[in-house]
Amino acid sequence: MVNFLPDGTVMRDATVDSSLFGLWYFGMLSPRDPRIEATVAAIRSRLSIKTGVGGCARYENDYYQRWRDVPPDVPGNPWFICTLWLAQHDIAHAQSMHELNNVKPLLQWARDHAFGSGIMAEQAHPMTGEPLSVSPLTWSHASFCLAFEEYVRRWHELQA
User: What total number of domains does the chain contain?
Assistant: First the structure.
Protein backbone atom coordinates (compact mmCIF):
# COMPACT_ATOMS: atom_id res chain seq x y z
CA MET A 1 0.00 0.00 0.00
CA VAL A 2 1.30 3.43 -0.87
CA ASN A 3 1.14 6.05 1.86
CA PHE A 4 0.40 9.62 0.91
CA LEU A 5 1.49 12.84 2.53
CA PRO A 6 -1.19 15.51 3.15
CA ASP A 7 -0.33 17.21 -0.17
CA GLY A 8 -1.07 13.98 -2.06
CA THR A 9 2.53 13.01 -2.79
CA VAL A 10 3.79 9.50 -2.18
CA MET A 11 5.89 8.98 0.94
CA ARG A 12 9.51 8.25 0.09
CA ASP A 13 9.71 4.96 1.98
CA ALA A 14 6.41 3.62 0.65
CA THR A 15 6.59 0.52 -1.52
CA VAL A 16 5.70 1.32 -5.11
CA ASP A 17 3.80 -1.35 -7.01
CA SER A 18 2.53 -0.97 -10.56
CA SER A 19 -0.72 -2.79 -9.67
CA LEU A 20 -1.86 0.46 -8.04
CA PHE A 21 -3.09 1.05 -11.60
CA GLY A 22 -6.31 -0.58 -10.39
CA LEU A 23 -7.16 2.34 -8.11
CA TRP A 24 -8.13 4.50 -11.06
CA TYR A 25 -8.84 1.83 -13.68
CA PHE A 26 -11.60 0.23 -11.63
CA GLY A 27 -13.16 3.59 -10.80
CA MET A 28 -12.04 4.20 -7.21
CA LEU A 29 -10.30 7.44 -8.16
CA SER A 30 -10.02 9.58 -11.28
CA PRO A 31 -6.85 9.26 -13.37
CA ARG A 32 -6.47 13.01 -12.73
CA ASP A 33 -6.81 12.71 -8.94
CA PRO A 34 -3.64 14.23 -7.40
CA ARG A 35 -3.02 11.01 -5.45
CA ILE A 36 -3.14 8.96 -8.65
CA GLU A 37 -0.94 11.46 -10.46
CA ALA A 38 1.58 11.24 -7.60
CA THR A 39 1.41 7.44 -7.63
CA VAL A 40 1.93 7.25 -11.40
CA ALA A 41 4.85 9.67 -11.08
CA ALA A 42 6.36 7.43 -8.38
CA ILE A 43 5.85 4.36 -10.58
CA ARG A 44 7.58 6.11 -13.49
CA SER A 45 10.41 7.31 -11.27
CA ARG A 46 11.04 4.14 -9.30
CA LEU A 47 9.91 1.32 -11.60
CA SER A 48 11.02 2.51 -15.04
CA ILE A 49 13.85 0.43 -16.45
CA LYS A 50 16.66 2.89 -17.07
CA THR A 51 19.00 0.57 -18.96
CA GLY A 52 18.08 1.59 -22.49
CA VAL A 53 15.58 -1.28 -22.71
CA GLY A 54 12.73 0.69 -21.13
CA GLY A 55 9.47 -0.66 -19.83
CA CYS A 56 8.12 -0.81 -16.31
CA ALA A 57 8.80 -3.32 -13.52
CA ARG A 58 6.05 -4.83 -11.35
CA TYR A 59 7.38 -3.54 -8.04
CA GLU A 60 10.63 -2.54 -6.42
CA ASN A 61 13.19 -5.30 -5.91
CA ASP A 62 11.22 -7.83 -7.92
CA TYR A 63 13.52 -10.83 -8.26
CA TYR A 64 11.16 -13.11 -10.20
CA GLN A 65 13.01 -14.37 -13.30
CA ARG A 66 15.89 -11.99 -12.51
CA TRP A 67 19.18 -12.86 -14.18
CA ARG A 68 22.58 -12.56 -12.50
CA ASP A 69 23.81 -10.00 -15.05
CA VAL A 70 21.24 -7.42 -13.91
CA PRO A 71 22.67 -4.59 -11.77
CA PRO A 72 21.10 -4.14 -8.31
CA ASP A 73 19.79 -0.65 -9.16
CA VAL A 74 17.36 -2.13 -11.73
CA PRO A 75 14.02 -2.52 -9.88
CA GLY A 76 13.02 -5.70 -11.76
CA ASN A 77 12.34 -6.95 -15.25
CA PRO A 78 10.05 -4.86 -17.45
CA TRP A 79 6.62 -6.49 -17.74
CA PHE A 80 4.39 -6.01 -20.76
CA ILE A 81 1.25 -5.52 -18.65
CA CYS A 82 2.87 -3.01 -16.28
CA THR A 83 4.20 -0.96 -19.17
CA LEU A 84 0.78 -1.07 -20.82
CA TRP A 85 -0.89 0.01 -17.57
CA LEU A 86 1.13 3.22 -17.83
CA ALA A 87 -0.10 3.61 -21.40
CA GLN A 88 -3.69 3.07 -20.29
CA HIS A 89 -3.32 5.70 -17.58
CA ASP A 90 -1.85 8.18 -20.03
CA ILE A 91 -4.67 7.50 -22.49
CA ALA A 92 -7.34 8.13 -19.86
CA HIS A 93 -5.45 11.19 -18.62
CA ALA A 94 -4.93 12.76 -22.07
CA GLN A 95 -6.77 16.04 -22.66
CA SER A 96 -5.18 16.86 -26.02
CA MET A 97 -3.84 15.12 -29.10
CA HIS A 98 -0.35 16.12 -28.01
CA GLU A 99 -0.80 14.31 -24.68
CA LEU A 100 -2.30 11.31 -26.44
CA ASN A 101 0.63 11.13 -28.86
CA ASN A 102 2.94 10.74 -25.85
CA VAL A 103 1.39 7.28 -25.36
CA LYS A 104 2.75 5.89 -28.62
CA PRO A 105 6.23 5.01 -27.27
CA LEU A 106 4.67 2.76 -24.61
CA LEU A 107 2.56 0.92 -27.18
CA GLN A 108 5.59 0.69 -29.46
CA TRP A 109 7.67 -0.69 -26.58
CA ALA A 110 5.27 -3.63 -26.25
CA ARG A 111 5.31 -4.23 -30.00
CA ASP A 112 9.10 -3.92 -30.23
CA HIS A 113 9.74 -6.39 -27.37
CA ALA A 114 7.43 -9.09 -28.70
CA PHE A 115 8.83 -12.00 -30.66
CA GLY A 116 9.05 -11.49 -34.43
CA SER A 117 5.83 -13.47 -34.74
CA GLY A 118 4.04 -10.90 -32.56
CA ILE A 119 3.77 -13.24 -29.58
CA MET A 120 4.22 -11.40 -26.30
CA ALA A 121 5.90 -12.90 -23.28
CA GLU A 122 5.29 -12.04 -19.65
CA GLN A 123 8.35 -9.81 -19.32
CA ALA A 124 11.62 -8.83 -20.97
CA HIS A 125 15.26 -8.98 -19.91
CA PRO A 126 16.16 -5.49 -18.59
CA MET A 127 19.60 -5.51 -20.21
CA THR A 128 18.93 -7.12 -23.61
CA GLY A 129 15.18 -6.63 -24.11
CA GLU A 130 14.78 -10.31 -24.99
CA PRO A 131 11.38 -11.81 -24.04
CA LEU A 132 11.43 -13.77 -20.76
CA SER A 133 9.25 -16.19 -18.88
CA VAL A 134 5.83 -17.41 -19.99
CA SER A 135 5.20 -17.09 -23.70
CA PRO A 136 2.74 -16.56 -25.20
CA LEU A 137 1.02 -14.81 -22.33
CA THR A 138 -2.60 -14.05 -23.10
CA TRP A 139 -2.67 -11.34 -20.41
CA SER A 140 0.07 -9.41 -22.22
CA HIS A 141 -1.81 -9.68 -25.52
CA ALA A 142 -5.13 -8.73 -23.91
CA SER A 143 -3.53 -5.71 -22.23
CA PHE A 144 -2.09 -4.58 -25.56
CA CYS A 145 -5.48 -4.98 -27.28
CA LEU A 146 -7.25 -3.06 -24.50
CA ALA A 147 -4.68 -0.26 -24.53
CA PHE A 148 -4.86 0.01 -28.30
CA GLU A 149 -8.68 0.06 -28.29
CA GLU A 150 -8.66 2.71 -25.53
CA TYR A 151 -6.14 4.74 -27.55
CA VAL A 152 -8.34 4.66 -30.67
CA ARG A 153 -11.47 5.55 -28.68
CA ARG A 154 -9.67 8.47 -26.97
CA TRP A 155 -8.27 9.63 -30.33
CA HIS A 156 -11.82 9.83 -31.69
CA GLU A 157 -13.05 11.65 -28.56
CA LEU A 158 -10.31 14.24 -28.84
CA GLN A 159 -10.96 14.73 -32.56
CA ALA A 160 -14.65 15.54 -31.93
Answer: 1
